[in-house]
Amino acid sequence: MIDTHTHLYSTEFDSDRTEMIERAISKGVSHFYLPAIDSETHENMLNLEAEFPENITAMMGLHPCSVKPETWENELKIVKNYLDQRNFVAIGEIGIDLYWDSSTLDIQVKAFEQQIDWAIERDIPIVIHTRSSFDEVFEVLERKKHPKLRGIFHCFSGNLEQAKHAIELQFLLGIGGVVTFKNGKIDQFLNEIPIENIVLETDSPYLAPVPFRGKRNESAYVELVAEKLVDIYGLQFSEIDRITTENAELVFGMK
What we know:
Layout: E1 2-3, H1 17-26, E2 31-34, H2 42-51, E3 56-58, H3 72-85, E4 91-97, H4 105-122, E5 126-131, H5 134-143, E6 151-153, H6 160-168, E7 171-175, E8 198-200, H7 222-233, H8 237-251
Parallel strand pairs: 1-2, 2-3, 4-5, 5-6, 6-7, 7-8
Helix pairs in contact: 3-4
């Protein structure tokens, strides 16, 4: 299995990070993709990638919740500097979040568009954070439509229509713990989406799946997400594992 979205460098793992990573590997998680947040955590993220080069791969980007009026332009310069220094498999996580702060929508859009441009220039995917902002995100993606624009809608929690729209725009759906929630709703229509459009994720340490909901999430729990997809798609666990792993390898250019 591949955890396509996990914040392994989070301070919530400071006491047992290595053990947590080894626990996930023992559960069959072969690779972990780390989304960037902002300059406060880039170094920790990249150090962890260097520590586990066979299993961990970092992205680069500016999270929409870190797009602040006083710092966002400088934060983007930092992202650009990293992108110019070395190759990254994706730009993420980027996007629009109107749940926490809708007052910064205009600069969130500017930061999102700039990072999309960089991804197109480098021919790499983007990993999108969208919260209370599907309409706004789709508006940007339609405006920026390009043959090289592709990626993942991380932690997809929209409806069937939004899922189909994302797929039409060359995006996969990142499915995590929400699919196990009774009020998550995506389990009610996910079987209408071909499994070839799905990748697994945890978003650790957030959004732990049932039966760990409300507790710290970790990458080993991606197995619980895969088991839920077994129920939804009526496929063997090995098939869910194989297909979602291939999907992840393709989108990140690892295959």
